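Consider this record:
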Amino acid sequence: MLEGAFLTINMLSGEKGSGLWWGTKRESDWTENQLDLFTMHTIKEQSILLYGESHLDNIPSYSKEEFISFFKEYAKCMRKFGKGNSLHSVDWLLLASKFIAWWQEGVILSKSQAADWGHLHLSSGWKDNLKRCKELRKDPSMVTRLEYSEWLSNLEPAIIEASHDLDRVLETTIH
């Protein structure tokens, strides 16, 4: 399924425009770019031009301090909203692993790649959840199985632990 943000070129640099978010559950009109800083960075660093002229210079570059602020805010949101009980709860852990991988090694990973990276490179207990996160990402219908629904209902402590790891990494590692 085609999914994501479809924006005018001007919207990339913060101007108003007419865009569309096409998600798995619904579509919505965007009059301004609502993509987060890391998504914009990923587009700038890893996009592939299929046809036409590149407009990557319309995407701003971000400072180390802006990334730190973004990641710290993400960690705060994890603690406030990462309650488990939902298929989308796995994204808290996958994104934490993705952000830590980028901060430590400078690699931009997909969520599935971040699950594998985290399982190999992280030392905290929450990393043991990443395999199941990846399994649910690959086959969301498994959320109806009792073992997965019970696991999701107990995911909050792992999300909190991951948020603290993200905070610690920002204090000790310089990208």
Q: What stands out?
A: The chain has a mean pLDDT of 92. The first strand starts at residue 4 and ends at 6. The helical segments are 9-12, 37-46, 64-81, 90-105, 111-121, 130-138, 146-153, 156-172.
